Amino acid sequence: MPGFDHNERTAALLARLRSFMQEHIYPNEALYHRQVDEGGRWTRVPLVEELKTKAKAAGLWNLFLPHSDRGAGLSNLEYAPLCEEMGRVHFSSTVFNCAAPDTGNMETLERFGTEEHKRRWLQPLLDGKIRSAFAMTEPAVASCDATNIESSIVRDGDDYVINGRKWWISGVGEPDCALLIFMGKTDPAADRHKQQSMILIPRDTPGITVVRPMTVFGYDDAPHGHMEIVFDNVRVPATNLLLGEGRGFEIAQARLGPGRIHHCMRVIGMAERALEDMCSRVKTRVAFGKPLAEQGVIIERIANSRIMIDQARLLTLQAAHRMDQVGNKEARAEIAMIKVAAPNMACQVIDWAMQAHGAAGIGQDFVLAKHYANARKIRFADGPDEVHRHQLGRMELARHG
Amino acid sequence: MPGFDHNERTAALLARLRSFMQEHIYPNEALYHRQVDEGGRWTRVPLVEELKTKAKAAGLWNLFLPHSDRGAGLSNLEYAPLCEEMGRVHFSSTVFNCAAPDTGNMETLERFGTEEHKRRWLQPLLDGKIRSAFAMTEPAVASCDATNIESSIVRDGDDYVINGRKWWISGVGEPDCALLIFMGKTDPAADRHKQQSMILIPRDTPGITVVRPMTVFGYDDAPHGHMEIVFDNVRVPATNLLLGEGRGFEIAQARLGPGRIHHCMRVIGMAERALEDMCSRVKTRVAFGKPLAEQGVIIERIANSRIMIDQARLLTLQAAHRMDQVGNKEARAEIAMIKVAAPNMACQVIDWAMQAHGAAGIGQDFVLAKHYANARKIRFADGPDEVHRHQLGRMELARHG
Amino acid sequence: MPGFDHNERTAALLARLRSFMQEHIYPNEALYHRQVDEGGRWTRVPLVEELKTKAKAAGLWNLFLPHSDRGAGLSNLEYAPLCEEMGRVHFSSTVFNCAAPDTGNMETLERFGTEEHKRRWLQPLLDGKIRSAFAMTEPAVASCDATNIESSIVRDGDDYVINGRKWWISGVGEPDCALLIFMGKTDPAADRHKQQSMILIPRDTPGITVVRPMTVFGYDDAPHGHMEIVFDNVRVPATNLLLGEGRGFEIAQARLGPGRIHHCMRVIGMAERALEDMCSRVKTRVAFGKPLAEQGVIIERIANSRIMIDQARLLTLQAAHRMDQVGNKEARAEIAMIKVAAPNMACQVIDWAMQAHGAAGIGQDFVLAKHYANARKIRFADGPDEVHRHQLGRMELARHG
Amino acid sequence: MPGFDHNERTAALLARLRSFMQEHIYPNEALYHRQVDEGGRWTRVPLVEELKTKAKAAGLWNLFLPHSDRGAGLSNLEYAPLCEEMGRVHFSSTVFNCAAPDTGNMETLERFGTEEHKRRWLQPLLDGKIRSAFAMTEPAVASCDATNIESSIVRDGDDYVINGRKWWISGVGEPDCALLIFMGKTDPAADRHKQQSMILIPRDTPGITVVRPMTVFGYDDAPHGHMEIVFDNVRVPATNLLLGEGRGFEIAQARLGPGRIHHCMRVIGMAERALEDMCSRVKTRVAFGKPLAEQGVIIERIANSRIMIDQARLLTLQAAHRMDQVGNKEARAEIAMIKVAAPNMACQVIDWAMQAHGAAGIGQDFVLAKHYANARKIRFADGPDEVHRHQLGRMELARHG
């Protein structure tokens, strides 16, 4: 059947996911934040632990991993609508063990890890017993150009010794974070794309100092967190290196495609929820003699939101479809497109929804401001809009004789 | 197969259509305009007549009519990419007998005409022997609200007598225009949506005066033309009325869906061509020491154009798919969405392409300015953006409890 | 002299203000935040107290109050550039005793207070000994329409008794906040604009409960704060009523003009600083082989920022000039214009600056994200964009016969 | 007096100009177009000749020339509002002898011409007896970069011989066009900005062939016209060279400032008129049960138009003021700003006005579509937006440490 209507398998999972969210997630959003506060922000959230057990029992677990028998076996296109649904509540991805950066890390370990890596790290991650982080961005350089990375990974006997300063390392705040996948340079003299390597660093290795949590607008996103970290002579066995020296860039490229689809589908979920919130709000508020819902400017924004969301969703599904058909590398134009289109769309739709809520829209009683901050962050994550547009524009130019 | 990849039938037709255009249409664009000038603008264009014969012979004829054995039997989704292709050259739709308003008129006659109507008007239209027009818009009222229509259709014995002033009646300039489908009021006292009727008026009926061609920006679009016409006691047999008195609004609604898909796919074709023109142009122009193609702002616009075109195309294909699945009426939200999204997108992409061409971009050596004018016109045709957004916004509001 | 070049008086004050900020404010931005944290957020900030003394000594005090011998005697036009300068650092307005809502409250007391009100509240406010708040917005209704206000002010003998729930009451977090000017209804049965009154409520009156601070994109803006407050049978002497029953709307209107100029000039200061930050940043960051400062898209945004800032500043100065010439009421179209134009401009310019900073742009090491949140908030404060556009559009329509 | 309120002199001239336009220009707009048609498009328009006499008699003549006793002696700032007024009707500038490119040519002759040049060409231009053109843009190169110009001016004894192809040469259609100021290269081997020279070419010199009029969105702008011209061994006396060999670029720079102010003020006039048209139209049109003037989206656009026009006008007046104060060269950032801001603003405002008119908006019964085409053209004229933004962005970057 043509189009992007859900197939039976996706439709069934989506129905199950939605009813789980209705029953267990939405009613507990306030409780989640209360538990984070009560726990002092950087501790395990009891609610999440309970819900993870329930989600696993409901068969809503590890839905993200395509082309592997370790996950649910869904294609990118099949997973996409489920990912959108999870995006509506920021902590729900964790409940279903589908949260970044664990997903990208699991995919990296699945594709490029040794059997020992899989045994020690992938399996506990798949089981939801540990969490992980991905240490790439550095404060001193424009990290959108991965060749700028300055941290060092130096061979010393049977070990590698790691030095550097990273920041915006998401997930290090999680009390269960046990593993960092670290990107640095093994050979600064090599070819531009062969200098970098990736290495596995257990969280409890000596020499790792968390300097501070970065804030996103004013949010610390506890207990997940986006940390600034100093690595001072951190020593790990040489077997922790992924694939081999100089292959870091290659691994980075491989992990980006699915991660971008996920980011995009989640922000589409945020936008869809914002539109629903906007519609509900404007029906109940009266100003200057009539409900906001009858005011032309509001109706126009609702219409434009619907158009923009549907366009971004179709483009993202098309990118997922292409990834399934021709692989991540061949689909890179499509992936670049959605990485620009989806978060920008979401920022606009959420902004309109905030405006329709009055001051409440930027406060803590609605998810809007938090979601705006998240969607705005996605405009940098995995490369800023400008880099994607530049690459996309050059691909397009190359197509025309 | 999921997605909107072409099925075999469409792929084959598209390949044939493209090679026809490469061979017969693009090389003759300048000749077309020369013949229009040489013929005094409002006469038959010999080139078009020749190409019609060739197109019919190539099996590229009447591709538009879905769900009927009179056309090529394509679904809306199958026809859409062909329609996009034709949109790249404004006179090519005529070559393939797929031009508005004939298409809408043929569909109207097919769905609502009597056997006699079909014999006398539909068959010659399908054969490309005559052309037709659709007389709805009036200068005196806001015609986006069809209930505003003021022209009268009054029963007088076995005839109806028609009076009124219409404008922007496209196609009346064609020397072969033989039929007007006319919308007017048979009963101004009836319910708001039951006052209107549609009636067939032979072009040569006494009382029809073409006042002047309207211009679109500075284009008269000869020989097609957009005419202002006075109907002064125009008398036709009562059997010319379609369906019955008071059913004009219903017929108008029915014809709009496919027409909007066609408009949208054609403007997408214009946008795609503009993007190609922009890419070609910027590679050959140097300013301030480097080709425009290496300047960041240009690359950004090319990237944004690609994103915007692909989003609009996917949305339009989705609307076509929905029309095929659930019918024009159920798909009205999707149709409203594309009617807003596609021409606005095209105006922006073409505008960027014009800007990249310098002054040449708004002149007669490229199709850009003409296509801009056409795409801009589509933002009014079949209802302005604002009406579609308003209806769409209200549908969306109604979906949320 | 034509134009908005500074006159001598303004030029001299501006020079003094700038050197004060260079010497005392910019170098202490980090210290300010550290002291807020160390003080537990809702306590007096020692730095601010020291700087207030210095500012008073430097003659940089109460610059805001036009047409009064109690302030510096500057016109709105003369004060505007000073206000812009203060906007560059959010706590600096407080240092110069020019912070909202104190400024609006002082102006209200100056224009509408009794001698006793002035003695008890205005003088200590002018001296910077106490702070104040303005309690208008309510959670239950769309407060952009002031007639929606539901809180009650009921006469009871020689007192008024106040009940209601307010939120986003800025400044109540300040430990020195001693006064609330409260808007409520004295007569719900009166004419639509005669139902409201304003009354002075000492902060320590029994029955006032601060429920919680509201957050602005995650920021609590401590120690200023934006509080939700319950007023439960709060009793004050009848003499605390301003002007008389039913005159609340009139007072609200009068206070809005200058407050809007101030808001706008401050956000222009934020935008100007963001542009400076953007320019500095892009010179020091290299990506894909050249500094960001040489990349076309960045240069274009810098140019557009300059154009947008200068336009918004000129429009705001024009509004200030009109207020000085013809009064706040006659200048209401100009005031509505800037209220829309300035914060929207600032949001866009700051957003570009954030994007040029990469992830750092939304974190705590730059003022950008905080300023974005503030500018975004101004799009609601004193009425959302939509209300101002609506009123402005109607005024414009009324001008054309 | 601060601000940009008109001084007495400007106010008096503006009042006189407005009443002239009310009496003689607006009532004759249709007649103008009829006479152009009746005259076969490329002939003298009797109406214009009559009105020129009247305008001269009314003291509304040569208002544009600043800092010279040959014109009205107005500063740029004083002339600006008059220029805006003329912009409302495209042929009115000619009536007041204030039309481009004559104005720029007169200013060039005044500043850089010899006494003989002034006697032979400047005086008849000032008297309105002849018209002129400025031949710079070439089809073969990106002329926004003046160093790309390829036409040659070669010394041959006491003459120069000119060869080249120019297009978009405005005003050559005028039957009274007697002079072309031509830009070409005298020394392609010289420094990049010293290769060009300017030379005076009498229109009737042998070797000049007008190839065709270029169209602007379908408009030929007859009888003014934008011509493509071949110069084939056109020979003029060496004394026709302006200033000296290699000084063409310098002259080009000098003439641009005032021309850009004029362009900008005229498009502001177009925008202001479009806004008036929009307001009038929406009051008289009813759709879906209420006048367009009561529909929120329309009101919002009217408000945004007012904001955008006022901002662009203030910015342009500020640029004029700076030119008067510090000279064209020092004011180049301000001039670049308005060159971007004003025509883009006008395109948007006119587009909204067109949309509010329905199909009528793009036809010949309103000036909107023609004005849109003109304003759109200004986005290229004297350099496209992109070049101005690039220069402005670099100036801004240079300001910051």
UniProtKB/TrEMBL annotation, chains A, B, C, D:
Keywords associated with the record: FAD, Flavoprotein, Oxidoreductase
Record-annotated Acyl-CoA dehydrogenase/oxidase N-terminal domain positions: 9-129
Residue ranges occupied by any Acyl-CoA dehydrogenase/oxidase C-terminal domain in the UniProt entry: 246-394
Residue ranges of coiled coil: none
Location of the Acyl-CoA oxidase/dehydrogenase middle domain: 133-234
Co-factor(s): FAD
Pfam annotation, one family: Acyl-CoA_dh_1
Known partners and oligomeric status: Homodimer.
Membership in a protein family: Belongs to the acyl-CoA dehydrogenase family.
Protein name: Acyl-CoA dehydrogenase family protein
